[in-house]
Amino acid sequence: MSRPIPTGPEGFTPTGTISSSTDRRRVVFATVVGTTVEWYDFFLYASAAGLVFGQLFFAPAGEGFAQILSFITVGISFLFRPLGAFLAGHLGDTYGRRLVLMLTLILMGVATTLVGLLPTYQAIGIAAPILLIVLRILQGISAGGEWGGAVLMAVEHAPKTRRSLFGASPQLGVPLGLLLASGMLGLMAVIAPGDAFLEWGWRIPFLLSFVLILIGHYVRRRVEESPVFLELADRKEQTRMPIVQLFRKHALLVIIAAFVFAGNNAVGYMTTGGYIQRYATDPAGPVGLPTAEVLGAVTISAVSWLVFTWIAGWAGDRLGRRNTYIIGWIAQLVGVVLLFPLVNTGSIGMLTLGLVVLTAGLGFTYGPQAALYAELFPASIRFSGVSISYALGAILGGAFAPTIAQALVQQTGSTDSVTWYLAGMTVLGLLATLLLRDRSGIPLGPDHEELQARSPIYGASKA
Known about the structure:
Number of domains: 1
Number of helices: 22
Number of strands: 0
Strand content: under 5%
Structural class: mainly alpha
Order of helices and strands: HHHHHHHHHHHHHHHHHHHHHH
Distance between the termini: 19 Å
Low-confidence stretches: 1-18
CATH class: Mainly Alpha
Radius of gyration: 21 Å
Largest sheet: none
CATH superfamily: MFS general substrate transporter like domains
Helix content: over 70%
CATH topology: Growth Hormone, Chain: A
Shape: globular
Mean pLDDT: 87
């Protein structure tokens, strides 16, 4: 087992300059708020796809196929995440992390607000689903660029012994975004139940995004640029073609890192992709629970996911990123095996328990990801490396997980096939993790590019 690589004195940033506790708190707060807004928008769409979009935008396709089409629109956005990652990686490695965070926040918020104003198929015909898909694509481009900038701002500002914990701050935006999205939809399901929710209630959470953009924009404007990028810029050492350099020297590493995330993402998208919400509320299905109750259960699981993600960030600094991941994969496999047997009891309490158990593994395979990814790539191409690995992992994992689950159940008539699918993705994530050395504590600044460029893959040359 590899040991963490030692670095300089405690309290110093990767560039060797002291970062004040005030600056660090501001960065943590900004990354949490910004990513929460981003993922609120992204998950709000996915939840609505499971609850209402099939009926409102794809009804002519027939009840069963309309729902599959609705879930496909969730997955389509993932296909455009690499485009967002490529654009953001180039901009982030060339012009800075902060600029990318501002652009992605605005793009995501505008697209989400416009979904809330979009006429349905009944009002404008085929133009409605086409416009819906266009807006979802814009969300995908934004999501592809957002994550890399947020995690690098957090990790590159962090003291060397707390990178995993600091890196967990943007990761908290995922469960917080899910909590906020499910909570808002659940509230509207109570305020505007039945037909009212279908007619106008679902739109209110989308329109709220405009207010959240303003809040997120204000918070992110007050954050200083990453010290690693500032030193690169001061030395004029930014890579002119970072993506070309990334794939020329680190293509295999990108693929392995993508599979690490894919194992988490496929399982996470059972709720963030709206599948459990649809499966558990379908009146023609085996469960048939009320929408408000299911959304409440998802909201509770988002809280537990948040807690386990934070604990995993803390554990990543003490146990190492790799060991924390291994614990997470084992816990996630247990959660996958228990999920559908508990959901299929038809009890809201058992459904909640199944989702909460699942979040233990999800948190432990997500909390240390920011630090793990940041320590894999050299400073000059780091934004491109983490963003593209993340985007490819999202395609391999969560992109069509709800669609695959829906198709498997319709084909086999049982959720056992979904369990096998999710278990397989979990094992794949574990195997990818085992291929990587733990590089906890490796210097992140441009002075150590030669060390950072050595392959962290077991069996590959370290030279």
